């Protein structure tokens, strides 16, 4: 595997993401014409379509033909107990944001991540209805290509600004598909503390806004772009996060895992290394955008401060 050409891996993944994007938009046009209803997985809020399955098949077959000795983890074929191998491993969500796809809300995408030596080193995210392509290769930066701006633009799109406190932050959080009361109570408490006016809500952080756009990958891409400040998620899987993590890290962002993992990482600064398998596969994620240095504080120190502040405010739970 020492001869693995990562630039070739990236070029192949970009080409594949565009082909998958065409399959996704053709699939939606057909479903809309025929008035097809979505099937459900674990409950009525967890959707699956034949387009998810056909797109994963297309992507998996292309990868297996090109890189027969690489591993493949895809949402539709995964058993949930996968681990990240040492060699090349493709971690793919054929449609991230399936609910949006079914409803015609354009925030859905194909997410193609790649790990090597157990680290996310490449990511490609393509949103076919927006025609937004995000990609990154470890050590070579993260980029955005759109129909309006076809020349690759380096991410973040603007020079990172300081982030003095959670009060200046726009936070992405989702309701998820697990709607049991225990989960909802934890989420409601987190939303309350993040939104709340501290004059009236104990521990209120009064963030500038909370957004739920329904695609983990596109939120991570927005963290990379600098247009969302913080992304907190429990319950998503490696295929929802792998590509996005690779992209946002190349744009100066940082992703940490559970509260327990993070408290150790904050003490040792290891959160600024690559995302380890226990975070990638751990189903608990907190990502923060690149933050500009100030005379008083480096951007990294600010990221650490905000991670602490955020984790003090939210209630953690274990996903099913
Ligand atoms: P999907 O569209 O591939 O299912 C919306 O909440 C985001 O979270 C989407 O990216 C969705 O991916 C993802 N997601 C997948 N499984 C989830 C789970 N069990 N709980 C919460 N979010 C999940
Ligand atoms: Ca999916």
TrEMBL record:
Signal peptide: none annotated. The keyword Lipid metabolism does not apply. InterPro entries: IMPase, Inositol_monoP_metal-BS, Inositol_monophosphatase-like, Inositol_monophosphatase_CS. It holds the Pfam family Inositol_P. GO terms for biological process: inositol biosynthetic process; phosphatidylinositol phosphate biosynthetic process; signal transduction. Mg(2+) 1 binds at residues 75, 95-96, 240. It is an enzyme of class 3 (hydrolase). Pathway: Polyol metabolism; myo-inositol biosynthesis; myo-inositol from D-glucose 6-phosphate: step 2/2. The keyword Cytoplasm does not apply. Its EC number is 3.1.3.25. It catalyses: a myo-inositol phosphate + H2O = myo-inositol + phosphate. CDD domains: IMPase (cd01639). Keywords: Hydrolase, Magnesium, Metal-binding. Its cofactor is Mg(2+). GO terms for molecular function: inositol monophosphate 1-phosphatase activity; metal ion binding. Mg(2+) 2 binds at residue 93. PANTHER family: INOSITOL MONOPHOSPHATASE, INOSITOL-1-MONOPHOSPHATASE-RELATED. Belongs to the inositol monophosphatase superfamily. This is Inositol-1-monophosphatase. The lineage of its organism: Eukaryota, Fungi, Dikarya, Basidiomycota, Ustilaginomycotina.
């Amino acid at each position: 595997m020492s001869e693995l050409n990562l630039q070739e891996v990236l070029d192949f993944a970009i080409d594949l993401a565009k082909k998958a994007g065409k399959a996704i938009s053709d699939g939606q046009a057909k479903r809309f014409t025929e008035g097809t209803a979505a099937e459900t997985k674990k409950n009525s809020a967890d959707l699956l379509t034949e387009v998810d399955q056909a797109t994963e098949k297309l992507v998996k077959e292309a990868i297996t033909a090109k890189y027969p000795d690489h591993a493949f983890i895809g949402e539709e074929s995964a058993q949930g107990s996968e681990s990240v191998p040492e060699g090349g491993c493709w971690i793919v969500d054929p449609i991230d944001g399936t609910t949006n796809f079914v409803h015609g809300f354009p925030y859905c995408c194909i997410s193609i991540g790649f790990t090597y030596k157990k680290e996310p080193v490449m990511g490609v995210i393509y949103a076919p209805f927006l025609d937004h392509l995000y990609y990154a290769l470890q050590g070579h930066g993260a980029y955005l290509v759109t129909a309006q701006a076809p020349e690759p633009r380096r991410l973040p799109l603007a020079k990172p600004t300081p982030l003095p406190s959670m009060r200046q932050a726009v936070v992405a959080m989702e309701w998820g598909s697990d709607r049991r009361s225990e989960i909802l109570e934890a989420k409601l408490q987190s939303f309350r503390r993040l939104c709340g006016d501290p004059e009236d809500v104990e521990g209120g952080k009064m963030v500038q806004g909370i957004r739920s756009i329904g695609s983990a990958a596109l939120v991570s891409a927005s963290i990379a772009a600098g247009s969302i400040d913080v992304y907190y998620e429990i319950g998503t899987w490696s295929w929802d996060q792998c590509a996005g993590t690779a992209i946002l890290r190349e744009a100066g962002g940082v992703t940490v895992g559970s509260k327990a993992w993070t408290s150790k990482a904050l003490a040792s600064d290891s959160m600024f290394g690559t995302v380890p398998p226990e975070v990638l596969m751990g189903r608990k994620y907190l990502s923060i955008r690149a933050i500009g240095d100030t005379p008083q504080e480096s951007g990294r120190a600010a990221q650490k401060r905000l991670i602490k502040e955020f984790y003090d405010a939210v209630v953690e739970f274990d996903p099913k």
